[in-house]
Amino acid sequence: MMRRFLLLAACAALLAGCGEEPAPLQYGADPDLPDQQRGLLPDMRIALPAAWGDDLPTVPQGYTITPIATGLAVPRQTLVLPNGDILVAEGSGGGAPTLRPKDLIANYIKGLGKTDVGGGNRLTLLRDADGDGTYEMRGIFADGLNAPYGLAFLDGSIYVANQDALVRFAYSEGQTEASGPPEKVTDLPSAINHHWTKAMTVSADGRFLFVGIGSNSNITERGMDAEVDRAMIWQIDARTGAHKPYATGLRNPTALAIQPGTGQLFAVVNERDEIGPNLVPDYLTSVREGGFYGWPYSYWGQNVDSRAQPQDAAKVTSAIRPDYSLGSHVAALGLAFSRPEMGSEFADGVFIGEHGSWNRTPPVGYKVVFVPFADGRPAGDPVDFATGFLTGDGKARGRPVGVTVDPRGALIVADDMANTVWRITASGAASAASQ
Amino acid sequence: MVAVYAPPTVLPLHPVHAILLAFPFPLFLGALAGDLAYWGTFQIQWANFSSWLIAGGLLGGGVAMIWALIELLRFRTSRALVYFAVLLVMWGTGLVNVLVHARDAWAIMPASLYLSSVAALLALVAAWVGYSGIRYGETV
After folding, report:
1. Is A19 among the domain residues?
2. Which residues in chain B are contacts of A41 at CB distance < 8 A?
3. CATH number of domain containing A359
4. Contact indicator for B87, B113 with CB cutoff of 8 Å
5. Cα A321–Cα A326–Cα A327 angle in degrees, nearest 5
6. Which of residues 102-131 of A touch B (CB under 8 A)?
């Protein structure tokens, strides 16, 4: 009874918050897709930075969040090593040239919503030697990298996806500093690098690395020629560096993860802008080998985007509909499969870090959500897992990027605006209650 | 006594004003050519050229427009009024055009073709009126 009342109250609050223009239902397999629209001026709505002060992000009851490292230099993705140490990739890539008067203005406005700190181009190592949840040791594992983003541990090596190359550090357990410069496994497509992040994960059999390569434009406005080897996921042989496109038409695959048990590759993908506040939904999808997912010709299956010319009808026909919509412009940048150690309510599903929108009113994202799974597929609406990054007056205190599940039962969240790494754990009381 | 009669002398534009007025027509015409080239080839660089050309036309044309307004307020001739009015509409069209060109890829089509045509035509008219003179000298 009490629960039903709370549900009603929550619905009322939600409706009041929506104002006169309710957002369409854009979660799940079959999102509402409104008509494309574009006025003379794009809707830019930047959340200006604000400080946390003594506040913390809000997590579900029974969970605790603590900053385990602050003052970092733009942390993006994290990796938990076998001994529990955490590696943090810090960096800022890109630097695509200004092609139009628009770029000058848009880059200035977007810059207002970012940290002033320069990217560290390094890996920071955090260690909690006594297991009390405080990461008392912090050092630089490796420096002089080029906008590192994707991280993976495989066969005693640490693989780092820089914005221009995949490199490998030899690693022995307990090591706190790389013993030398890394060895290059292969170059990665880096011309222009409009979407520079190179997300990465290891295949279930440990033979391959999957690397996400974003498009070189929003919707081919840098020309079709700039899109060779872009908007795709590469499968790279970890030993030889030999590679091939694994799946294509994925505009900006910003995080990759392998589903435990099935070995299936999943990705979160950021979709195109400037055709309305409710287009096109960013998505979570299982990735089929050889699959084409629409970009640039169409979205969410066969919805043609005529901005991409010349069009390709055969490609549009072949475009796969993604599995699960996360909502338009949420900017999903982190993806991690959960484990039973995260507590019974959040045991089966994925955590997703949402960096947050810059071209939508009201802003969306700016939180970490949990998408529950059933029978190995997404099932049900996303559940808020960490919120409060956006203040009531529309300022951003943080912007979540990478999320990683620590096997000991913690979610590690990189925040590239607060320059903080957060750790969310089930407090003792909650895990007792959930059993 | 012989009556001396001479038609009023049309004074040329101030050289700086004339230089500024020289911007819009060739630049807007170049933008139209760029749009046509993009339309025919799908090569995005033509549309990028157009964006910058329109921005340049707006810059020079904008200062010429302000100058035209000042001259209108000073001399209040009908030619000055026509000249300012044409520049104003031209500049407004150019502004809408540069915003349309800020759309991505083929989203500028077909509006860019129409707007660039109208803007170039208005720039031609403005130049014609302006260089024909907007104020008169003393009669002798």
Report:
1. no
2. 99
3. 2.120.10.30
4. no
5. 100
6. 102
